[in-house]
Write a structure and sequence with these properties.
Helices cover about 60% and strands about 5% of the residues. It is mainly alpha-helical and about 475 residues long. It starts with 16 loop residues before the first helix and ends in a 5-residue tail after the last helix.
Length: about 475
């Protein structure tokens, strides 16, 4: 039996089945059920407080909504597509349970601002949960950096050996990327955390509602300022998806390095067996499937952002049904990003660094050539001249199949008279690393400061999450 449409009074014919199949969103927006009921209870309390409906009817409606929530969570309430979306399904069930008084719940609101509220409540939780997931990955990176803080590996540019760096410094580069991701998410949260209910269809409502009271019940510090913008805006969804795309890009870069480093050619790390898979035909294989999948899922999140941007680019004010499509992209970006962060956070403690392989690698590729140029420059040789001199030294080493540290003082002095015995100290990998003591450098002292700052960053982020979670709590819980 077809469900009665709440907007059906205008129409002489029932909706075609093919139209119901085409227009339904309950197959994906059912995940909003708890937020829909939470927002409806707050709205109902406001209606009674403002004497728009009697208090006894408000209590009856709220009790019915709470029962419906339990039914959905128990899996006993049918969510057929004929109900169109989760909001209409809950309303239909409410009227079925308590009679016509259930229809009063929709007084002074539209499905437009109702959906905007539900998505806002969902997104607010999603942002805070994503921040907690970022924290977990940052904590994993910091733990790896501290565990292997003295290990040196080649730093690369153009995928060629460049200069030696501490492994901890390399890991903290990704920590910094995720720090910026946290900052973007926290900034996004400040705009998500505005209460949209009360905009109604697009023009507000003539009823004497109290939007600020509802905002207080739901833990919002403020309400949206323009009713047309409220129901037609999806900026916060775009902000989240944009921030998620950047997170995924950072995760993908890290995963690319973990994949390469775990190969036989590098042999820099080993990923724990629990986070790898084998081959169906080659019994010796140990494949880094988890980082590969994270790298692959990045494209999905990019696509969701582009989908939303394209969806919004030509929409006139205010609401248009096109906006139903926003949830698919948002939900997928939220779940994909969170799942990637969670599995990566679980995997990082299972990464073992092969310090011997890294140590062997830093002996190749003339990684201290820049240190020799800096040595000459510090003794009055213009850096461009020093650069050319060291280039000739490296060319000599290549022809003689020698490393820089293999050269004798006499061999080096052939290229510049300013070179003295102390040059031999600057050609060691350890000296190269430890000489870079500036803030942000790879020197041991600078890295230790960075590790201490990282702990402060994590503490500050956790305070933010705890504070906002506390603010969300209301008397309805």
């Amino acid at each position: 039996m077809a469900a009665k449409k709440p907007w059906g009074g205008r129409f002489a014919k029932a909706t075609e089945r093919v139209v119901e199949e085409f227009t339904e969103s309950i197959s994906f927006d059912h995940v909003l059920y708890a937020y829909d009921i939470q927002g409806s209870i707050a709205h109902c309390r406001m209606l009674a407080r403002q004497k728009i409906i009697p208090a006894a009817e408000s209590r009856k409606i709220i009790k019915g909504l709470q029962q419906i929530k339990r039914e959905i969570e128990a899996g006993t309430l049918e969510l057929g597509m004929e109900f169109e979306d989760i909001h209409m399904r809950i309303e239909a069930r409410l009227i079925e349970k308590i009679g016509p008084v259930g229809g009063k719940l929709h007084t002074a609101r539209s499905r437009n601002d109702q959906v905007a509220l539900d998505v806002t409540l969902y997104l607010r939780d999603a942002v805070l949960d994503t921040l907690a997931c970022i924290d977990a990955v940052q904590s994993g990176l910091l733990a790896l950096a501290e565990k292997y803080k003295d290990v040196i590996l080649p730093g690369f540019t153009h995928l060629q050996h460049a200069q030696p760096v501490l492994f901890a410094h390399h890991m903290m580069a990704y920590f910094e990327m995720l720090k910026r991701d946290r900052e973007r998410m926290e900034s996004c949260y400040s705009r998500v955390n505005r209460m949209p209910l009360g905009a109604s269809a697009l023009a507000g409502t003539p009823y004497p509602i109290d939007r600020e009271y509802v905002a207080g019940l739901l833990g919002f510090p403020e309400v949206t300022a323009n009713s047309m913008d409220t129901v037609g805006d999806r900026d916060t969804l775009l902000e989240f998806c944009s921030s998620a795309a950047l997170i995924m890009m950072h995760l993908s870069r890290l995963c690319e390095e973990l994949i390469v480093w775990s190969s036989s050619e590098f042999n820099f790390i080993e990923i724990g067996d629990a986070f790898c898979t084998g081959s169906s035909i080659m019994p010796q294989k140990k494949n880094p499937d988890v980082p590969e999948l994270i790298r692959g899922k990045t494209g999905r999140v990019y696509g969701n952002l582009m989908s939303l941007l394209t969806l919004m680019k030509s929409l006139p004010l205010a609401y248009n049904r096109d906006l139903q499509e926003d949830k698919i992209a948002l939900f997928d970006s939220v779940e994909t990003t969170r799942s990637c962060l969670r599995v990566l956070a679980a995997m990082l403690p299972e990464v073992q660094v092969r310090a011997d392989s890294m140590s062997a690698a830093v002996q190749e590729g003339f990684l201290t050539a820049t240190d020799l140029a800096d040595y000459l420059a510090a003794r009055g040789v213009p850096f461009r001249d020093a650069h050319e001199i060291v280039g000739r030294v490296v060319s000599y080493c290549v022809k003689q199949d020698k490393k820089l540290e293999d050269l004798t003082l006499e061999e080096l002095q052939q290229y510049s008279p300013v070179i003295k015995k102390d040059v031999l100290k600057c050609l060691t990998v350890a000296a190269s690393v430890n000489s870079r003591t500036c803030t942000g450098g790879t020197g041991g002292q600078a890295v230790r400061k960075a590790l201490r700052r990282a702990h402060a960053v994590l503490k500050k982020g956790r305070v933010f999450i705890a504070r906002e979670e506390s603010r969300k709590k209301t008397s309805m819980e």
